[in-house]
UniProtKB/TrEMBL annotation:
Span of domain Nitroreductase: 21-70, 79-163
Upper classification of the organism: Bacteria, Pseudomonadati, Bacteroidota, Flavobacteriia, Flavobacteriales
Keywords associated with the record: Oxidoreductase
UniProt region (Disordered), positions on chain: 174-201
Official protein name in the record: Nitroreductase
Highest taxon, organism lineage: Bacteria
Assigned protein family: Belongs to the nitroreductase family.
Amino acid sequence: METVSQKQKKAETAFEILAPLKSRWSPRVFDEKPIPQNEINRLFEAARWAASSYNRQPWRFIYAKKGSKAYDKMIDCMSEFNQKWAKNAPLLIFTAYKEKTDEGDDNFHALHDLGLSLGNMSMQAESMNIAMHHMAGIDWKKAQNVFDVPEGFHVTTAIALGYYGGDLNKLPEDLREQETGERERKPHSEFVFEGSWKDRS
């Protein structure tokens, strides 16, 4: 079995950062063993304690374990590309956020808060040798209907989760090449501005 380890994909950072941030990456294959319920609970507990504007905690999550009807429905809501590999994951999550505050105003910061909760979850997962692959490629309108999401909440992304160490041979050849490729990020000069925004595009 050919696998890709966290060590192999460790980021070559420009400055020293925390080890879990360097080792985190988004595989498309996972170890087949299921994630126990107590481990799933720990992931959501990490998300629970993320910072949020006015402590509104607008994030919501729907999850399903491989082998369940809900899991198959989640796969069916994904883009054709994501369906090719997401079926390798022992666990799937759909994320959503509450669109308005309790006062009825648009919650401008809800997506920011959802992102913070997923950042927490990602670092908790990393400490447990669990990989998370976040996806934008889902039919959110279909997901809203299939999973009975109430009005006022917006399905946003999907996440495939599983322990690191999946068999690369379960992927099509083109995806295997991506899986073993080097990780890259934009340099600070393209997104960090001191004092004022400077056009460096």
